[in-house]
Amino acid sequence: EAEVAQSPRYKITEKSQxxxxxxxxxxxxxxxxxxxxxxxxxxxxxxxxxxxxxxxxSQLPKDRFSAERLKGVDSTLKIQPAExxxxxxxxxxxxxxxxxxxxxxxxFGPGTRLLVL
Amino acid sequence: DAKTxxxxxMDCAEGRAANLPCNHSTIxxxxxxxxxxxxxxxxxxxxxxxxxxxxxxxxxxLIITEDRKSSTLILPHATLRDTAVYxxxxxxxGANSKLTFGxxxxxxxxx
Lengths: 117, 111
Fold this sequence. Notes:
- The structure holds 2 protein chains of 2 kinds.
- Chain A is globular, with a radius of gyration of 13 Å.
- In chain A, a hairpin with a 6-residue loop joins strand 4 and strand 5.
- Chain A starts with a strand and ends with a strand.
- By secondary structure, chain A is mostly beta strands.
- Chain B contains no helices and 9 strands.
- Chain B has a 5-stranded mixed β-sheet, with no helix packed on it. A 4-stranded antiparallel β-sheet of chain B has the order 2-7-6-5, with no helix packed on it.
- In chain B, a hairpin with a 5-residue loop joins strand 6 and strand 7.
- Chain B starts with 8 loop residues before the first strand and ends with a strand.
- The interface between A and B is medium-sized, with 24 and 23 residues.
């Protein structure tokens, strides 16, 4: 069964450093999401892509976070500079259907666990 | 999208049915009830969703009350691998709708 791939699985960095996460969605999935999950809480949407276009980045802290999906396939989420409060799990999800469609099912990757020291 | 309320935790015995409740008293007519679960250190996994009719698939059953203000996810024969956080989410259709996760309910299946 096809899966969403993410790398790295774990990342330790020092505050003020730059960090990047990579996501490869399931082949053919046009919609891609990045979520952040703080320990003990549910995932929170950061950014949503439809193909290469950003559909919703209202919750993305744009002063330090950026996301791109240049060819509409894989995606990169970057944090520069990292802060202590960015320590969390960063999850990528993809779906075949358009966001909000009746039968949309999001498939999540295993996540990247970030620790900022 | 309407908010949901779930108890923080529950447990059940292996092999028994696990009934996970969810309240969504402010749900509107075009909003669906979705359930996802998250096993420790993994990404969330879709389970099931429904509008007003009861739904069943290979993983679970979803029972939605007639007034749609609450629902129950049923795992008919819980196993140890079903130990996870279960999220009940209400979501409308349309490009602006999102999956808004709360804290979920932690289900512990005991041997």
